Amino acid sequence: MGITRREFIRASALSAAIASIGVEPLFKNKLFSASLLAETWHKTVCRYCGVGCGVMLGVRDGKAFAIKGDKNNTVNKGLLCVKAFYLHKVVTAKNRLTYPLVRKDGKLVRSTWDDAMNLVTSKFKEAIEQNGPDSVAFYGSGQALTEETYLANKLFKGHIGTNNLDGNPRLCMASAVGGYLSSFGGDEPVGSYDDIDECDLFLLIGSNTSEAHPVIYDRIVERKKKNPQTKVVIIDPRQTPTNKIADLHLQMIPGYDLSIIHAMARIIINEGYTDEEFIKGCVNFSDGQNPITYDDYKKFLEKYTPEYAASQCGVKADDIVQAARMFGKARTAMSMWTMGVNQRITGVWLNNLIHNLHLLTGKLGKLGSDSFSLTGQPNACGGVREGGGLSHLLPGHRSVENEQHRKEIAEIWNVPVEKIQPKPGKHTIAMFEAVAKGEIKALYVMCTNPAHSLPNLNKYLKGIQDTFLVVADAFHPTETTKIADVVLPAAFWCEKEGVYGNTERRSQHLAKATKPLGEAKWDGDILIDLAERLGYGKNFEHYKGPEDVWNEYLKCTKGRGLDLSGATYARLKEVRGLRWPVPTTDHPGTQIRFVEGDPLFPKEKAAGKRMYFYYKPDGKAVIFARPDKGPQEPTDAEYPIALTTGRILEQWHTMTMTGQNPELVRAAPKPYVEINPQNAKELGVKNKDFVNIVTRRGSLKLEARVIDRPRKGTIFIPFHWPESLTNLLTIDAVDPGSREPEYKVCAARIEKA
Amino acid sequence: MKKNLIFSVTVVCILFLSSLTVNAQQKISKKHTKVDWNQSCEECHQTKTPKVVSKWKFSKHGDANVGCFICHGDGEEEFYSKPKSDRCITCHSSQDVDFKRIKVTSCFFCHVGHSLKFHK
């Protein structure tokens, strides 16, 4: 029995009526769809910056289909930035690598896992046998999971026996690490994001927060709206979108800001904004070599009048005075900084000087006040700084040079203590210098793109190409995979489970929501496989998955300042992360360190003092009298323009991920150089003209964007585009303490193309 | 009984097919004009639709640099001349409301496009 024409017309009319009164067709009904297509949402963390936003990833039919902010996560409360908006689409981007590649007759061709790993193993074995363990190296990433960095560390430092293991946080956060260690005795911030909501004065130095840490910026904006007394002072050579909330901007000549901070300190002391009780109880003074007295420090500061600082850095003396008074008078104050401070040859010193302001005023260790470094990458803190993924570190904030530390880690790794070398290995620039000289015969690169992101690229590219290079990455081609000998397809983000530790010491769990694409494997499994093939299986074969690795790593943190013993997977899956120290599974985590409430705060030793910096022998932090040194390469007659480099909101690093979203590419489709209108007029350059930007290291042809952002005499180039490698121009001079390169300033000239 | 069943199934099929058509229509929305794609949305629209750009610039999205492409797609590969509310929820998941309860059909019922001002 079929349906008549009259019945069909009736059915159509009824359907139309149903649709018109807003009853969704069953197909679009959420419950109906969910039951048919089994839609699940997974709690995880954004793949991009160090803010560490909570994200919910929607999976349907085994594929990531949607993303939204996790409204229950205190970091971002459901908010996302534009990059994360499209993160779910990156999972199945066209440039995902789905099978191993091996170079044969000059070309990368498809290989099997077994053949690729056999080749890697044989090359590494050959290098180690013929030239010793230091002829191989590992270069990792602040975007790798903590478990992955931990495994690499265990393999290279604990079994192969080389400390030539470093990571890209050397290029971004090393100076912040150096600053925290020297000033406070321990790495990472004292406070947390909670301070933002009580802060009355934000000092943003070398941070374009609205583009580099947008969700933090939004939180600052909200604070300003809720509390109109809140002020924002910016110290930056560029006007940026962050200026929308600025009350005062000291737009200084790049590389000359140390004098500003010293001048502020001098005013703070002279005009009585110090917390003398705090200084007496909690602070020592040093000139960097020897202890000095408070009076010595005051004498040191006499040179740094506002007029002197103004003459050095090109800002008004009155503005420096105003900045100091705003800082001093504020009930609470937070300094925030990122690459503008860290990527300098005086990066550690500048970090010290910022800490000085907080130590002088006592604006530290209380809600709303903090000296708060903004971390760039999602797991530079968790995986590399805490996990020991730099050439001088061991897991749990330990040092290879410390005998007791080597003993403790050797026991956990089940290796003879002699296996771990006491001498630090090669930091990033030294590593790639050794690669360039042919001293490193085999290099394993994981989750990063040094052939794009290293400074002074021309110096290193050939060496990287000539050495035996293995790259484990989720994406191909990148500048680094293109010149590799073996490229191993790595699982990406939601295809693996693990932990990220963000800027505010919060360790958060990332769920495995989908299967790895094609033949891609978890980086941890690749490293375990390599360890087994190199003959070290005994200490690696027991891991059944990332949780086993995490549990072993927790042993490295037990009893230490970053105790994560209470951050088991079971707990991390339930909560939206935990801030260490979190010593037990019923501990809520620590909002502020070095004060009562910190589980490690030694009440008796502190004897009534508000703060006790328990990493320091006497519990006191250090104020440093550092000279106001300028950049490695000041401008001169031949190269009269200061070049500074950085980021834009819509792109992440070398565009391997965000470059796959056409929407994000649309924001800035092609490379450009920002030129101040006064400079442009003098040179006869109009907007969209092509110019050559020349430094002592290279030259790039770029489209001019004439805009009143960089100060006169300064240009700005984002470093994202692979077709226009900004780092051909940048300088690789490093901070002598942190070994972090000075990406933020070098000398250039503009030529009309 | 059988006749009623066939009738009901027919209604469901028509609804199903019509929703597919609607979906297809939503996917293939009005196409963006062919332009030089080597420029950002803002660069072109500053001269083509300056009032719209100005409204956006002074909106909360403009403040936060949430560009045109978030709501409208990149223009070339994907384009939504009138974007849907489900895009809003991606970034504003804490504002996921029950539209039926507050008697509106989308975020844009209250938050005017571009300026995002409430009702105006």
What is the compact description of this entry?
The complex is a heterodimer of chains A (753) and B (120). Chain A has 753 residues and is an alpha/beta fold.
Spatial strand order of the main sheet of chain A: 5-4-19-18-17-6-7
Largest interface, Cβ cutoff 8 Å: A-B, 52 and 44 residues
Number of helices, counting only DSSP H or I runs of 4 residues or more of chain A: 27
Strand content of chain A: 15-25%
Low-confidence stretches of chain B: 14-28
Radius of gyration of chain B, whole Å: 19 Å
Q: Helix content range of the residues of chain B, please?
A: 40-55%
- Alpha-beta classification of chain B: mainly alpha
Distance between the termini of chain A: 79 Å
Largest sheet of chain B: none
Name the helix and strand elements of chain B from N-terminus to C-terminus, one letter apiece: HHHHHH
Quaternary: heterodimer
Number of DSSP strands of chain B?
A: 0
Average pLDDT over all residues of chain A: 95
Poorly predicted parts of chain A: 14-36
Taking the alpha carbons of the first and last residues of chain B, their distance comes to 53 Å
What does this structure look like?
The complex is a heterodimer of chains A (753) and B (120). By secondary structure, chain A is an alpha/beta fold. Chain A is built from 27 helices and 29 strands. Chain A has a seven-stranded mixed β-sheet, sandwiched between helices. In chain A, helix 10 (258-270) packs antiparallel against helix 13 (306-313), helix 10 (258-270) packs parallel to helix 16 (347-361) and helix 13 (306-313) crosses helix 14 (317-329). The longest helix of chain A has 19 residues, at 113-131. The radius of gyration of chain A is 27 Å and the shape is globular. Chain B is mainly α and 120 residues long. Chain B has helices at 2-27, 41-48, 50-57, 60-63, 68-72, 86-91. Chain B is extended. The model of chain B is unreliable at 14-28 (pLDDT under 50).
